[in-house]
Amino acid sequence: MSWLTQTLTSSIGKKVLMSLTGLFLCLFLVVHLIGNLQLFKDDGGYAFNTYAVTMTTFTPVKIISYLNYFFILFHAFWGIYLEVRNRKARNVKYNLIRNQSTWSSRNMALLGTILLVYIVVHMGDFWYKFHNEPLPYVQYTEMLSTGEVFSQVMPAGYTQDVKQVEFVNSDEGTRTVIVKDLYQTVSVAFQNFLLSFFYLLGMVAVGFHLYHGFQSAFQTLGINHPKYSPFIKAVGIWVFAFIIPAAFAAMPLYFYFKQF
Fold first, then answer.
1. What are phi and psi of 112, to 5 degrees?
2. Backbone angles phi, psi at 167, to 5 degrees
3. DSSP class of residue 161?
4. Burial of 34 (C-beta count, 10 Å sphere; 0-12/13-18/19+)
5. Long-range contacts of 189-196, Cβ-Cβ distance < 8 Å, separation of 24 or more
6. CA separation for the pair 98, 106 (Å, rounded)
7. Which pLDDT score is estimated for 9?
8. How far apart, in whole angstroms, are the C-alpha atoms of residue 247 and residue 152?
9. Which domains can be identified in the chain, with CATH numbers?
10. Nearest one of 154, 156, 185 to 45, comparing CA atoms
11. CA distance 25 to 18
């Protein structure tokens, strides 16, 4: 295993670790967005609340989530370490190279630090509350024949041992689900202007970070070919630097303006 240790501790090996963890986080970002798009469904939060339970109780998903938490921390602190190391080794500033590079490529460590702060706030706002605070419960009744959903907030003080209970009434043709109401928590949180604005700034940082980071990861892994590189660059710019951050940014905007 010495060859592996030597490879990973070499200069290129350190960058490879950054690239691999970064691409994993990009993949997670896509999956996370698909799930969070349930917030826009006009069903009183039924789809989003049941999705949130699946994400926190289904064992394979939980394992991937814990890996994701580790990779977030590793990617952030490893990136800061590499930036500090590079600056110490840099006795002369290469002005020509700096002029040819983009702002985001020169400030990846800064953007990564901003994103780490954003993630901590985000986890505290929703993940921590969902797991540790007594959130209200909501009951959904779905008509199995039509798919129509009716919601009813459970009385104050109602609690249950699990995040979600579900039962089917065959005689009435209904499915009843009682679940923690994270949807309402998200809705109320994003009615706060300062919090919504902070999330928008976070998405701007995501866009700039991925504008350089996505294509740079492929280059570090040796995938740099005239035939494929333009496509990778286009995906990095349009999908990861623009569409995904814009979609996430639409969520706080949706709930903030929905209150008026």
1. -65, -40
2. -150, 150
3. S
4. exposed
5. 189/125, 189/126, 189/255, 190/251, 190/252, 190/254, 190/255, 190/256, 191/255, 191/256, 191/259, 193/256, 195/125, 195/252, 196/252, 196/253, 196/255, 196/256
6. 7
7. 63
8. 29
9. 2-135+182-258 (1.20.1300.10), 139-180 (no CATH)
10. 185
11. 11
Query: Which phi and psi (to 5°) does residue 239 adopt?
Result: -85, -55
> In angstroms, rounded to a whole number, what is the distance separating the alpha carbons of residues 93 and 98?
8
d(CA 93, CA 90): 7
155 secondary structure, DSSP code: P
Helical axes 244-258 vs 11-36, angle rounded to 10°: 40
Give the residue among 61, 119, 71 at the shortest CA–CA distance from 217. Answer: 71
Taking CA atoms, 18 is separated from 71, 78, 98, 158, in Å, by 10, 7, 21, 46
| Averages of pLDDT over each 10 residues, the chain, 260 residues | 58 83 93 95 94 88 87 86 74 51 74 87 89 90 92 92 91 94 95 96 93 90 86 94 97 94
Q: Is the pTM of this model over 0.70?
A: yes
In three-state secondary structure terms, 164 is: strand
Our CA dihedral for 89, 11, 101, 117, rounded to 10 degrees, sits at -90
Can you tell me the distance from the alpha carbon of 108 to that of 110, in angstroms, rounded to the nearest whole number?
5
Q: Can you list the alpha helix ranges (DSSP code H) found in the chain?
A: 2-9, 11-36, 46-57, 59-89, 95-100, 103-106, 108-122, 128-132, 182-189, 193-220, 229-234, 244-258
